[in-house]
Amino acid sequence: MKLFSSASVLAALIFLGAIGYTASQMLDSSSAQPASSVNSGSATVPVNVSTSRALPDFTTYADVKAKKAAFFGYMLPLIEARNLHIQGQRQQLLAVADRVQDILSAQDTKTLADLAGVYRLADADLSSSELIKELLVRVDTVPPSLALAQAAVESAWGTSRFAVQANNLFGQWCYEKGCGLVPKQRNAGAKHEVAKFANVSDAVDSYTRNINTHRAYQDLRMSRAELRADDETVSGHILAEGLLRYSERGKDYVHELQAVIRINKLAPYDEPKAASSQGSI
Q1: CATH number (domain holding residue 191)
Q2: Could you tell me the residue range of the domain that residue 74 belongs to?
Q3: pLDDT digits (tens, 9 = 90+) for 162-215
């Protein structure tokens, strides 16, 4: 897969075309909280699960296929709900981008400032047009197939200690004492904890924000932007290549995610729905 060769080429493509143990899993104290907001064939799985419902006990399933179906059935609505929220943010951003050549209103300026805060660009010294280009790389959905595969791998299909006790299905770390659970095999001198969330929905929110903002995933975001510019499906199988730093296992981790996507036929969940649009400029 070809990636952009420079930031300037990436910006131009977006604007004109479709405008480990790991540093990747590290969260600051605010990242372990629900992400901020701006106003705003595969197996069949249900899509009406309440986002506030407690994590089911997946250890009760003796049949592997039933367990997988239940796990995906629980997680998919949470992931889709978060992606819908991000789509709304992106549409706001695209609306502002349409007006960027004019004098921006106070509301437009606030929208950009709010999004810059959420997506960790608040301290960037950028013009409005430059900020929009940078935000368009970040304010975008995570392919459901990729999120489902990572949740399955990182949480042992919803049965790990961190999933059960901390609602953390993505292996995310935090660094303030008491912010989460202390790993039983943490190295001497290490201070990280595994972040604890009030519910799984909050964990999904934090996970997508991590993917969309952490410097370790720049290649993933650039690949996604290139797929958008080419009007191609944003594929979890492809974007998994940008997760080399999510785990110390590197390529083996990426290959495991791709195998989970392939074996469980998750790719169709990445296809855009007819009624929704990611938007372009």
Answers
A1: 1.10.530.10
A2: 13-33+64-270
A3: 999 999 999 997 877 878 677 777 677 677 788 999 999 999 999 999 999 999
